């Protein structure tokens, strides 16, 4: 390549830069345990960001993912307890969680396509609905799992690497293939680029759109399963809070345009890790938690400015 | 009529090396209705846009009331009292009628507050003089197209112009409204207002204009008193040029009918359209802007809802409700709106060409066989001689002609049996045109049937086995053999015959 594609690799450059700065700034940063911690922490919103990439490429947005995480996670625990908390119960609960994610995504998708309501409005509405339902089910308390083996998934490791990280990476690879090597990936880019052209090219625009919200719903289900397993509980008021912002930030930092039409799964991964490292560093350096939002905000704006400026 | 209000001296206008106006020198007199006619792309609209400041001429001088002026922008035109009723309605939908009409000329009372009552009254009086009943308080979005046009006309007149440019003002107006407009034009003329009037409808020109200027391909052809020229002569002069030899010989189509439309009706746009398309036939569709040809194409491919009538493919009735259905029935549609409908600017050549046919390259998991895709794209690249850096070049970096070749490849890749080509060679140079004609010709020989919609009569005549002429959403004539000539088409297209 003669010209570097800043849109695509900008987030990687910033990530490398931040990595170097962080390792100089704090001797603890480079310790394996710290790195694994960061990766595990980002995997929950990272997984959602992977699905969010499809929605944003298609010219949409999903604000409901955080609330959906709480609702799905809560119900996963209810189902788990109901079936006794054994291995069978875990399998049923994850299937139930996936089904809920698919239903949640379908509702969002149908309201947007058939109801012709702007994605921002629809998902703003379902964001409130999902959170409220979660609070109502458990009377604003906590969903507590009675299972003893459930936490071993979220807490556990495989080949020294925490399971959520494996799933994050695995899902990133699958989604990367879907986006770049399948018909569906090409279609969602076409729709985000110019819906009319896509329609005239015999693409079922509504179906492709709805599927993008289902994909993010599935990501939410996987993320909430891992989250509830890790904590062995779900707080109805705090679980998944601001996940939508972190997920959207990761996607945007990763070079996917908010206008739709093109984007990168790898970018969402880099973006999510970037946000994790920043959190980690600010904590280690003792920066006031109140100021951490400022740094994050500056980073998002800066990343987008950089990508735009170099184009 | 007496003194000259506008005089142009050797006006040239160039767009990216193409001259759309060549050496236009005319005198437009005070208080006359000055008609301009010509085919699409003859330079009529461009000429008026040079006068109202939308374009600046590449060369040449303009004199206003015998003083040299440089009309660099629309504000200068406004200060010279040159008002325009544009070809397309250009109103703000969310504002009310009176707010639109007085936009930029608001009346203010005390404390800079808008004097809404006075504004409403002024607009009401204006409509009264136009014999139009439109509520000044109505929102623009609630008006019909014809009403919007009347608002546009009222807006131009409210500025008390000395020169009023009207670009196809009767488009989508009813007979009654046209009459009101004409009587208004006569009254304005009596007040000494000069009107520059562009129309495709030759009869209107004959009825209302004092003099008529004819343009063709940017050249000045003639300027006559309206009494010296009849409509037939106008039509002849508009088109009068030799047919070039860029067209391949015509082939006789097979007898078999592959597509038949029976009494198609799309409310307000198409009235009782029936025709048949034979295997291997190139069926031309001629007509002026707004005649309903594109709407017909959109109805056939399922974009527009057909209110009544039937479509038969190979004599079997079928319902086509979406472009998906159309592709399934082996119909390909090349849109006239290349940028808006035909191509994805940020997609590369390869991904554009295979967009519609992508399912063919996929296995059951939806994975794309890129190797096969690349092979096919190279085939099109070679056949059409698409000039691009590589098949991974984004379409935005290709010239218009090459973009068109890509969109043609795109609709051919699903291997259609019927092609609907809407303005196939719009904005394409002669050399490329010849390539494309030859390719279409070869497709017809191989048994493909084409509906060729074009505003270039030359193209329609040179390519078509038969020509259907449309006017105001109706088929006014079906021409065959030596009846396929420019004058005959013009007669039907302008509504003089049929």
The number of domains of chain A: 1
Please tell me the overall pLDDT of chain B: 87
Query: Fraction of residues of chain B in helices?
Result: 25-40%
CATH level-two architecture of chain A:
Orthogonal Bundle
Coarse shape of chain B? globular
Protein name (chain A): Ribose ABC transporter permease
Main location (chain A): membrane
InterPro entries (chain A): ABC_transp_permease (IPR001851)
Transmembrane segments (chain A): 12-30, 42-61, 67-83, 90-111, 117-138, 158-178, 210-227, 248-278, 290-306
Comma- or semicolon-separated keywords:
heterodimer, A: ABC transporter involved in vitamin B12 uptake, BtuC, two-stranded antiparallel ribbon, globular, B: alpha/beta, Rossmann fold, 2 domains, six-stranded mixed β-sheet, 21 strands, 32% helix, cell membrane (chain A), Ribose ABC transporter permease (chain A), ABC_transp_permease (chain A), membrane (chain A)
Describe this structure in words.
The complex is a heterodimer of chains A (311) and B (498). Chain A contains 13 helices and four strands. Chain A has a single domain, classed as Orthogonal Bundle (ABC transporter involved in vitamin B12 uptake, BtuC), CATH 1.10.3470. Chain A is mainly α. Chain B folds into two domains: 236 residues, P-loop containing nucleotide triphosphate hydrolases (Rossmann fold, 3-Layer(aba) Sandwich); 237 residues, P-loop containing nucleotide triphosphate hydrolases (Rossmann fold), CATH 3.40.50.300. Classes of the chains: A mainly alpha (311), B alpha/beta (498). Chain A: Pfam families: BPD_transp_2. Chain A: Its main location: membrane.
């Amino acid at each position: 390549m003669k010209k570097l594609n800043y849109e695509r690799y900008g987030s990687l450059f910033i990530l490398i830069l931040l990595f170097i700065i962080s390792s100089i700034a704090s001797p603890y940063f480079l310790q394996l345990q710290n790195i694994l911690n960061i990766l595990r922490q980002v995997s929950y919103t990272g997984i959602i960001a992977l699905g969010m990439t499809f929605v944003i490429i298609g010219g949409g947005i999903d604000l409901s993912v955080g609330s959906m995480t709480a609702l799905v996670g809560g119900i996963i625990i209810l189902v788990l307890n109901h079936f006794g908390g054994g291995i069978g119960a875990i399998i049923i609960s994850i299937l139930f969680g996936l089904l809920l994610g698919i239903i949640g995504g379908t509702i969002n998708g149908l309201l947007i396509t058939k109801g012709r309501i702007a994605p921002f409005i629809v998902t703003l509405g379902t964001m409130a609905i999902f959170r409220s339902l979660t609070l109502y089910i458990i009377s604003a308390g906590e969903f507590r799992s009675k299972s003893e083996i459930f936490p071993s998934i979220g807490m556990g490791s495989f080949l020294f690497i925490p399971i959520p990280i494996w799933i994050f990476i695995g899902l990133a690879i699958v989604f990367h293939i879907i986006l770049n090597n399948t018909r569906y990936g090409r279609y969602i880019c076409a729709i985000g680029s110019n819906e009319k052209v896509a329609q005239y090219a015999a693409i079922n625009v509504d179906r492709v759109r709805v599927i993008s919200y289902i994909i993010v719903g599935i990501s939410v289900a996987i993320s909430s399963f891992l989250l509830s397993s890790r904590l062995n509980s779900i707080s109805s008021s705090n679980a998944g809070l601001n996940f939508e912002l972190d997920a959207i930030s990761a996607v945007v930092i990763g070079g996917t345009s908010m206008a739709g039409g093109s984007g990168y799964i790898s970018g969402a991964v880099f973006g999510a890790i970037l946000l994790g490292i920043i959190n980690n560093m600010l904590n280690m350096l003792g920066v006031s938690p109140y100021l951490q939002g400022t740094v994050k905000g500056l980073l998002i704006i800066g990343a987008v400015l950089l990508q735009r400026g170099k184009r | 009529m007496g003194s000259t209000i506008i005089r142009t001296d050797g006006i040239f206008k160039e767009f990216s090396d193409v001259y759309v106006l060549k050496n236009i020198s005319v005198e437009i007199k005070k208080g006359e209705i000055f008609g301009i006619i010509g085919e699409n792309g003859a330079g009529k609209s461009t000429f008026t846009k040079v006068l109202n400041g939308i374009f600046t001429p590449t060369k040449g001088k303009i004199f206003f009331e015998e003083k040299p002026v440089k009309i660099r922008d629309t504000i200068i035109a406004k200060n010279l009292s040159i008002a325009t009723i544009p070809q397309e309605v250009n109103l703000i939908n969310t504002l009310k009628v009176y707010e639109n009409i007085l936009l930029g000329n608001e009346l203010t009372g005390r404390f800079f507050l808008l004097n809404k009552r006075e504004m409403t009254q002024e607009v009401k009086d204006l409509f009264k003089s136009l014999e139009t009943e439109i509520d000044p308080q109505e929102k623009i979005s609630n008006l019909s197209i014809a009403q919007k046009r009347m608002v546009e006309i009222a807006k131009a007149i409210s500025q008390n112009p000395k020169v009023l440019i009207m670009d196809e003002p009767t488009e989508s107006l009813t007979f009654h409204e046209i009459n009101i407009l004409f009587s208004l034009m006569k009254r304005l003329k009596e007040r000494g207002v000069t009107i520059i009037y562009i129309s495709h409808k030759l009869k209107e020109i004959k009825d209302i204009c004092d003099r008529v200027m004819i343009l063709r391909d940017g050249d000045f052809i003639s300027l006559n008193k309206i009494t010296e020229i009849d409509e037939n002569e106008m039509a002849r002069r508009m088109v009068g040029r030799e047919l070039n030899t860029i067209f391949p010989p015509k082939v006789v189509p097979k007898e078999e009918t592959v597509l038949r439309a029976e009494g198609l009706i799309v409310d307000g746009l198409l009235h009782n359209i029936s025709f048949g398309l034979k295997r291997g036939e190139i069926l031309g569709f001629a007509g002026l802007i707004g005649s309903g040809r594109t709407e017909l194409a959109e109805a056939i491919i399922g974009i527009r809802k057909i209110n009544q009538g039937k479509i038969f493919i190979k004599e079997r009735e079928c319902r086509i409700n979406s472009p998906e259905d159309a592709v399934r029935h082996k119909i390909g549609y090349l849109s006239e709106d290349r940028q808006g409908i035909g191509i994805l600017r940020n997609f590369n050549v390869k991904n554009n060409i295979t967009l519609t046919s992508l399912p063919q390259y996929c296995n059951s998991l939806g994975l794309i066989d890129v190797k096969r895709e690349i092979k096919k794209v190279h085939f099109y690249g070679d056949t059409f001689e698409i000039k691009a850096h590589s098949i991974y070049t984004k379409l935005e970096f290709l010239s218009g002609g090459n973009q068109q070749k890509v969109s043609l490849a795109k609709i051919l890749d699903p291997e259609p049996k019927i092609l609907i080509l809407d303005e196939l060679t719009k904005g394409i140079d002669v050399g490329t045109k010849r390539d494309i004609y030859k390719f279409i010709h070869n497709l017809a020989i191989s048994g493909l049937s084409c509906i060729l919609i074009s505003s270039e009569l030359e193209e329609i005549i040179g390519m078509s086995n038969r020509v259907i002429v449309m006017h105001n959403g109706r088929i006014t004539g079906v021409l065959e053999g030596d009846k396929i000539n420019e004058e005959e088409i013009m007669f039907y297209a302008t509504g003089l015959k049929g």
